[in-house]
TrEMBL record:
It is found in: Membrane. InterPro entries: Protohaem_IX_farnesylTrfase (IPR006369), UbiA_prenyltransferase (IPR000537), UbiA_sf (IPR044878). This is Heme O synthase. Keywords: Heme biosynthesis, Membrane, Transferase, Transmembrane, Transmembrane helix. The chain crosses the membrane at residues 107-125, 131-155, 176-196, 202-219, 231-248, 254-278, 299-319, 325-347, 359-378. GO terms for cellular component: membrane; mitochondrion. It is a multi-pass membrane protein. The keyword Hydrolase does not apply. PANTHER family: PROTOHEME IX FARNESYLTRANSFERASE, MITOCHONDRIAL. It comes from Manihot esculenta (Cassava).
Length: 436
């Protein structure tokens, strides 16, 4: 039938236009501009035996030829020209490197570090929080944390390539080179430390640099040597809130140890649950985790339970040392008993389900604990006012004796305005004087 039809090529072109503009096929062209008509070929497959050899050559010649007529109505011709534009290429390159830097820095983990540092900054600020200083501190902490996580992946590239959950990272997958990642990590680490030194103080910058060194050059190689790496990593996680406190107050006091202690003891059950869940992955990667030498999981669960119980007195200490009100003591005790109950359940029944429940409980504990610290914190204004009242009562006799020196011709003498902003407490209220 087709042999006697002289208008085969125009009909075929009209069919192609129908499949292109209709709803039966989204596209009939591949990336190279060659025609690909699956519906048309499947429709014609039933009558392929009736097609003579010269029509087969005509069809193959048409399917494989890149003619100008076909390109004229190709929907990808203009898109290909746009894709080759410098602007689009630059945007794709920026998107690629942004994604690589995001994964290389472990951005979610770094933001958790920033949250603990910001909480420490607020706790160490008294009743006057410098929000600009807090933003600078959080930015510097984010940069240093990103540098530490990037160096961690540079040193563990061969180990990450063996683990299922890390083999798709930028370095093992080949999306970035080692020299590129090392340059990025060094640059952002130095910039973050310098930012903390300029906008906060040298104590905060020193804590940041020390934490970077401890994480990248002590904790990272120790993961392949001894299970004590978990406790060293807990020290690394406890330093950021101390950094924030030091950036706000310029010193490290006993009250500043509440949140770092909570982070240290919290990380042990958190890491133990994660190490138990990923035992095979850690073994394939060559890491010496505590759970790998504990086939039954009893010692792992016991260590997690013991460190959960260490969290119990922190709420009372925060109240006793004047950091928070008495309500936080009650709320912290209830919260700690909840995570301890999940650890005890894992100790009694060492299954993957119980370990995952303890891991989720640890994820819930930290933000609730930090929120309680911020909500119930005592800014210090009430303590300062009570101490001033006590001093006024103690020196009442002296004030009566020296009243004549402060009055001139029946008018009370006022103290200078600078007395209301004595450094380093510019937020103190101006003293009140009683008129006789």
């Amino acid at each position: 039938m087709w042999r006697n039809t002289p208008s085969f090529a125009p009909k075929l072109l009209s069919n192609l236009k129908y499949y292109h503009h209709g709803s039966r096929s989204p596209s009939i062209f591949n990336a190279n501009g060659i025609v690909f008509v699956p519906q048309f070929l499947s429709r014609c497959s039933s009558s392929s035996a009736a097609i003579p050899p010269h029509s087969d050559s005509l069809k193959s010649r048409f399917l494989n030829r890149k003619s100008d007529g076909i390109r004229a109505f190709s929907p990808t011709s203009s898109a290909a020209a746009v894709d080759l534009s410098p602007l689009t290429s630059a945007m794709q390159l920026a998107r690629h490197y942004s994604r690589c830097y995001w994964e290389l820095s472990k951005a979610r983990l770094s933001m958790l570090v920033v949250a603990t540092s910001g909480t420490g900054y607020i706790l160490g600020s008294g009743n006057a929080v410098d929000f600009a200083g807090m933003c600078w501190t959080c930015a510097g902490t984010m940069m240093v944390a990103a540098s530490a996580n990037s160096l961690n992946q540079v040193f563990e590239i061969s180990n990450d390539a063996k683990m299922k959950r890390t083999r798709r990272r930028p370095l093992p997958s080949g999306r970035l080179t080692i020299s590129h990642a090392a340059t990025w990590a060094s640059s952002v680490g130095l910039a973050g430390t310098a930012l903390l030194a300029c906008k906060a103080n040298m104590l905060a910058a020193g804590l940041a640099a020390s934490n970077l060194f401890l994480y990248a050059f002590v904790y990272t190689p120790l993961k392949q040597i001894h299970p004590v790496n978990t406790w060293v990593g807990a020290i690394v996680g406890a330093i950021p809130p101390l950094l924030g406190w030091a950036a706000a107050s310029g010193q490290v006091s006993l009250n500043a140890m509440i949140l770092p202690a909570a982070l240290y003891f919290w990380q042990i059950p958190h890491f133990m649950a994660l190490a138990y869940l990923c035992r095979k992955d850690y073994a394939d990667g060559g890491f010496k985790m505590f759970s790998l030498a504990d086939a039954s999981g009893q010692r792992t669960a016991l260590v997690a339970l013991r460190n959960c119980l260490y969290l119990v007195p922190l709420g009372y200490l925060a109240y006793d040392w004047g950091v928070t009100s008495g309500w936080f003591c009650l709320e912290s005790s209830l919260l700690t008993l909840a995570i301890s109950a999940s650890a005890f359940s894992f100790y009694r029944d060492r299954t993957v389900h119980k370990a995952r429940r303890m891991f989720h409980a640890s994820l819930l504990y930290l933000p609730v604990f930090m929120s309680g610290l911020l909500f119930h914190r005592i800014s210090g204004e009430s303590e300062l006012s009570s101490s001033l009242e006590a001093q006024e009562l103690d020196s009442g006799t002296d004030n009566q004796k020296s009243k004549g020196r402060h009055t001139i011709a029946g008018t009370q003498a006022r103290a200078p305005v600078a007395y209301a902003s004595v450094a380093p407490f510019p937020f103190l209220p101006a003293p009140s004087y009683s008129v006789p």
